[in-house]
Specification:
With 107 residues, the protein is mostly helical. The protein has one domain. Helix content is 81%, strand content 0%. The protein contains 4 helices and no strands. The protein is flat. It starts with a helix and ends with a helix. Keywords: Cell membrane, Membrane, Transmembrane, Transmembrane helix, Transport. One of its GO terms (cellular component) is plasma membrane. Pfam families: Multi_Drug_Res. This is Small multidrug resistance protein.
């Protein structure tokens, strides 16, 4: 269950990171409120997950999910470059997340 909680925490990390773009430097009230809410939810879920998972593993997976999701959405939503090298390194992060899950006995 902790891995599922961690995964959902990572999804909320993506939400708040993308929300930063839409909040326009926290000058847009509704996107700002959504960004702050997603940040709080992400942190609470991360805190819950680390009750059962090692902090180093959980933090690396959480940030990895956030990095992959945010970089991918940056390409899709904000026309950020999708170069071969960029996609390669995003995939390296995905392999790292999967690897940490496998060696940590995650189910």
């Amino acid at each position: 269950m902790s891995w599922l909680i961690l995964f959902v925490a990572g999804l909320f990390e993506i939400a708040w990171a993308i929300g930063l773009e839409y909040s326009d430097g926290f000058s847009e009230p509704i996107p700002t409120a959504g960004t702050v809410a997603a940040l709080v939810i992400s942190m609470v879920l991360l805190g819950k997950a680390v009750q059962d998972l090692p902090i180093g593993t959980a933090y690396a997976v959480w940030t990895g999910i956030g990095a992959v999701g945010t970089a991918s959405l940056g390409i899709l939503l904000f026309d950020e470059p999708a170069t071969g090298a960029r996609l390669l390194f995003i995939s390296v992060i995905v392999f790292g997340i999967v690897g940490l899950h496998l060696v940590s006995g995650g189910h």
